Fold this protein.
Amino acid sequence: MSRSLFDKYGGFASVSKVVSAFYDKAVESDIIGPYFDDIDMRAQVDHQTKFISSLMGGPASYSDEALQKVHAHLAIDRTSFEEMANLLRETLEEYEIEGADVDRIMHEIGSRADIIITRQDS
């Protein structure tokens, strides 16, 4: 039986550190930072930790329908999605997640792009 990425990299505590570091970058980004104005970042980090954990085979789960509902009102365009993906990849690599595992996580996120992107680039 193979270990999940969630277990391999230390569970919620480790994923939370990565997610916190990612959001430090995200709020500083000229492209996606404005999405987080007026957002309770503690709740956001908690939510995203559960989401990333689920992508890594952890105990949390999110349906595509729930993802669509959460993102529907945010008017996220492809440029913003790609900025988010680039910052997340960079952060995963900084936390020494192995390359193939980073690729797996990013593949899971990329496979949900059409759910998360809700606006065409202008």
About this structure: The chain has seven helices and no strands. The CA atoms of residues 100 and 114 lie 23 Å apart. The mean pLDDT is 93. The first helix runs from residue 5 to 8.
